[in-house]
Design brief:
single chain, OB fold (Dihydrolipoamide Acetyltransferase, E2P), eight-stranded mixed sheet, 25 helices, ComEC_N, ComEC/Rec2 family competence protein, membrane, cell membrane, transmembrane helix
Length: 804
């Protein structure tokens, strides 16, 4: 249960950390299990602790053992007691919190999409997202405390995620508000909200937050005001690093920091907390504060910093983990580091069990563990091989290396790629984080006295922030800087196994490379041969956004959600073709299948999507599929779709004009059509679900098999915008000639994608449609000529490659 990394190093006691890790897994299970399962899990934990206590007491009477062996056995039995106590405590707390959140009418009202009146506390700033027809919606988290349904008022404790219009823009954090909203269910029981809801009209503000909160909000507002005029990326990055306000970070900077593994810098993280604690310690020494009072002095500063950044779960997590990281980086604190980390995990999960499913929480805990177990010994090993003057560089290299090594498997779940530039990028940025953070805190303190008083510290913070942004931009453009990796749990387990193998065999490999200098060069050649794409072999970029699958004469599209998860828009005519495409993309989980209408060339491949994958829901058109059926109308495949979905236990629901579909913070779709049945033309084609889709910085118009009549209705939805321009158009009906030129002229797509079969009998795509697209300045890509069409890039810089 204890290991020593080096002679004379402090010994690690891992018992509490092991208990916390097992308790973490138990919380994840308790969030998803029914009540009986939660009770059984708690009973198992209680039984384990009882068995451990009994064996500890019994171990004291075993006289045949030596003193040393008896101590080892007792420590193991104590570990069992700890695991049992932690698991039972966390599971009971999680169950109680679930009961409290789900008490009252909110969950049932969400299942039936009821409208009610809610009174609650605002728990987040309104965040803008794309809405229907280019309109902007605001996303606000509200903790409901009272709800009124059918004239009955109930006290509740139910957090909901509210979609609202711009009348909510003036709402502030911790305001108490009353409003009406229409509810719908959350995606799963493990979500950190009970329900989603669309607000009706403006909220009534009943009360403002307390004096301390108002004071901190004023400081935040003053900081935003004085940094608004900073040059370039600094205007968004300085508030993000100091108070966690990411609202003004440019999309390109956010994408580049994500690609280089630097996202922990554009928000309040443990490193910010460490720097604040270090600066406070230095100030305490400068003020000659007595040694016994310095720790309370530092803790007071830490509490004030957390209040400034808002004591939300992510900030509390950063504060606790940062404090432990600061402890771990001291030689004397390494012994207490694992126990402190274990205690922090347990306390944070008691406060908010839903942190267990948060990637941010996992990354914070793993990064802190990396600092505790690896940063010091790796820094010492590197320092031994450096000149004495260069030894301070050792820790600067070891810290990001340790964090990257242990966090890599979780990052793979998020983006299905492994960054090879993360360590050097973070290494170069590290010297600039502390001055940016500390100058930013100084700006907060000076901002209430006016912009003139805060000008100097604000620009002092801007300079290192601009350097950090420049590093992110530069490394994000390094060729091969991000290596594609198998998505989902298999990819994470593979990287974890390789990392563990490297940690165990690292010293041996280093020694072998020293004896045989040619071995590293040979290994590098082998790695390059594996990673560099060979001409003729399909290479999907890790940050792909949309793929039009080569499914023959039909439609099958995929939107990337990251981590092996995707949204499928139509499934083509053949199950095998759609299954093969999803395998090529590494998609193992489907959040949503959107079936635009019930023609065979759009739905018959559904079985291939369901093959070995989990599907959360299927969305379809609400227009009666039998409507308009006649001698020339293709038969509807709705009965077959419903039978297949029922066999797989996948729910089906309909969508219509005005609905908003949110799959990720940066993947949101507004339903532009259908709003009604159009009897002219093909009823089913004109009933196609049409999406205004914003995905990872690109705007896509997904049109199904729309014909001219429905094109005109969609154009009417878009005319409210002054510039309804799209980056990508999925051309309707495989490029048939039945297109409305006015719609194509209005959206003026940079790229047009036509999903069509080779040598089809319909003459698709029509020459007139190709001429129309080209005259609108659009680059046209076809699946019959290039195979899968893979779209990536950002707005104004769309990148397209094809499989052939």
């Amino acid at each position: 249960m204890k290991r020593s990394a080096e002679p004379g190093a402090p010994v690690h006691d891992l018992r509490l950390l092991l208990a916390a890790a097992i308790g973490w897994i138990a919380v994840l299970a308790a969030l998803r299990l029914p009540a009986a399962g939660v009770a059984l899990l708690a009973a198992v934990g209680g039984l384990a602790s009882a068995v451990g206590v009994w064996r500890v007491l019994r171990g004291g009477r075993e006289e045949v053992m030596t003193r040393q062996s008896r101590a080892v056995v007792i420590r193991r039995r104590q570990a069992l007691v700890l695991v049992g106590c932690v698991v039972s405590c966390l599971v009971v707390v999680t169950g109680c919190q679930r009961v409290m959140r789900e008490a009252g009418p909110v969950p049932a009202a969400a299942q039936s999409h009821r409208t009610l009146e809610c009174e609650g506390v605002v728990q987040s700033d309104p965040r803008p997202i794309a809405g229907a027809a280019g309109r902007t919606l605001l996303l606000v988290r509200v903790g409901c405390t009272r709800v009124t349904l059918d004239n009955v008022t109930s006290a509740v404790s139910s957090p909901v995620l509210v979609f609202a219009d711009d009348s909510w823009a003036s709402v502030s954090w911790h305001d108490t508000v009353r409003f009406r909203l229409r509810l719908k269910p959350a995606q799963s029981a493990a979500d950190d909200v009970v329900a989603l809801g669309s607000a009706s009209g403006a909220p009534l503000v009943l009360a403002r937050p307390g004096l301390v909160t108002r004071g901190m909000e004023r400081l935040r507002s003053d900081l935003r005001d004085v940094t608004a005029g900073l040059p370039g990326d600094a205007a968004g990055l300085v508030p993000a690093m100091v108070i966690g306000d990411t609202s003004r970070i440019p999309p390109q900077l956010s994408a580049d920091m994500r690609a280089t593994g630097m996202t922990h810098l554009n928000a309040v993280s443990g490193s910010n907390v460490v720097f604040v604690m270090m600066a406070t310690t230095w100030i305490a020494g400068w003020l000659r504060v007595r040694a016994r009072w310095r720790m309370p002095f530092v803790l007071l500063a830490l509490v004030l910093f957390i209040l400034l950044c808002r004591p939300e779960p992510s900030v509390l997590r950063a504060g606790v983990m940062g404090a432990i990281a600061g402890l771990a980086m001291t030689w004397s604190g390494r012994r207490a580091g694992p126990a402190a980390l274990g205690a922090a995990i347990v306390v944070l999960l008691i406060v908010d069990p839903w942190l267990a499913g948060s990637f941010g929480f996992a990354l914070s805990a793993l990064a802190t563990a990396g600092l505790i177990f690896f940063a010091r010994p790796w820094g010492a090993a590197i320092a031994m091989r450096l000149p004495s003057r260069a030894r301070p560089v050792a820790d600067a290299v070891a810290i990001p290396l340790a964090a990257q090594a242990v966090c890599g498997p979780v990052i793979v779940l998020l983006q299905s790629s492994v960054t090879v530039v993360g360590v050097p990028a973070n290494l170069l940025a590290a010297p600039f984080v502390a001055p940016a953070t500390l100058a930013g805190v100084a700006t907060v303190l000076c901002a209430p006295f006016g912009s003139a008083a805060a000008w100097l510290p604000a620009h002092a913070a801007a300079l290192p922030a601009l350097v950090i942004a420049r590093i992110a931009h530069a490394f994000a453009r390094v060729p091969g800087g991000s290596v594609p990796w198998p998505p989902g749990a298999p990819g994470a387990l593979l990287l974890a196994a390789l990392t563990l193998a490297a940690l165990l065999s690292g010293p041996w490999l280093i020694e072998r490379c020293r004896r045989h200098p040619g071995a590293p060069a040979a290994g590098a050649v082998v790695v390059l041969a594996l990673l560099v794409p060979v001409p003729g072999v399909n290479f999907v970029p890790p940050q792909w956004v949309y793929v039009a699958c080569d499914v023959g004469q039909g439609d099958g599209g995929v939107i990337n959600l990251g981590g092996g998860q995707a949204v499928v828009i139509d499934t083509g005519p053949e199950p095998d073709a759609m299954d093969d495409c999803l395998q090529r993309l590494g998609v193992s989980r489907i959040d949503t299948v959107v079936l635009t209408h019930f023609h065979a060339d759009h739905v018959d491949g559904l079985g291939g999507v369901l093959r070995g994958r989990t599907v959360r829901q299927i969305l379809t058109t609400p227009v009666d599929a039998a409507g308009g059926a006649g001698s020339e109308e293709e038969p509807s495949r709705e009965p077959q779709v419903r039978a297949l979905a029922a066999a797989a236990a996948v729910p089906i629901r309909t969508v219509r004009t005005g609905d908003v579909l949110t799959w990720a913070p940066d993947v949101v779709a507004a339903v532009l059509w259908p709003a009604r049945t159009i009897a002219a033309g093909s009823v089913q084609n004109n009933a196609s679900v049409t999406l205004d889709l914003h995905a990872h910085g690109l705007r896509l118009l997904m049109t199904g098999d729309l014909e001219r009549e429905a094109d005109a209705a969609v154009l009417g939805e878009l005319r409210a915008e002054s510039q309804p321009q799209f980056d990508v158009l999925k051309v309707a009906h495989h490029g048939s000639k039945n297109q409305l030129p006015a719609l194509i002229d209005a959206v003026r797509p940079s790229v047009s994608v036509i999903s069509v079969g080779v040598d089809n009998d319909y003459g698709h795509p029509a020459p007139a449609t190709l001429d129309l697209l080209r005259s609108a300045g659009s680059a046209v890509f076809r699946t019959d000529l290039g195979g899968d069409v893979i779209v990536s890039g950002t707005a104004g810089a769309v990148q397209v490659r094809t499989r052939r």
